Amino acid sequence: MTTLSTGLGRHSLSEVDRDQMVAVCAICGPVAIKRTSNRGNGVRCGTYVATYTAKWREQNRKKARDYQRGYQRERAKSHPRSKADRFRSSLGFYGLTFEAYSQMLIDQSGRCACCGDPMKSPHIDHDHACCEKGSCGKCVRGLLCSPCNVGIARFRDNPERLRRAIAYLEGQS
Hints:
There is one protein chain. The protein is α+β, with helices and mostly antiparallel strands. The protein has two domains: 75 residues, no CATH class; 90 residues, His-Me finger endonuclease fold, CATH 3.40.1800.10.
């Protein structure tokens, strides 16, 4: 039996099943368990670990943020993502298959859907109002060059703002 006496109460674990990573905590009842380290057999109540971690992060925001940034920086060095990985990830984010993406590129003759210039690295444009997070795939409008993609984003996908900008530019010439 593993016993933890902390400011959060006495979390005694019984019926520990290390294969399924579950146990019964005296305070929390049935819980998932967390290993205390990569070595050894130490385990803790998962609810305790989550509560303690949240409490510690709240009290040590700067230290937690600095640790996380350092971890991400080191992880990026040892696990670099290739351009192909980022591309596959973006296709999934927009709900597109490689075939659908390729067909869009062919249909647009490798040119930007907005300005018509040739694209070095096409950006997938979608209607942000359609989906809360990411894209359903149905709201993908086309492939844009980088300047057009940034421009549309700066105008917040708002046609009225763009019309006013056009009127402004035409009035200046």
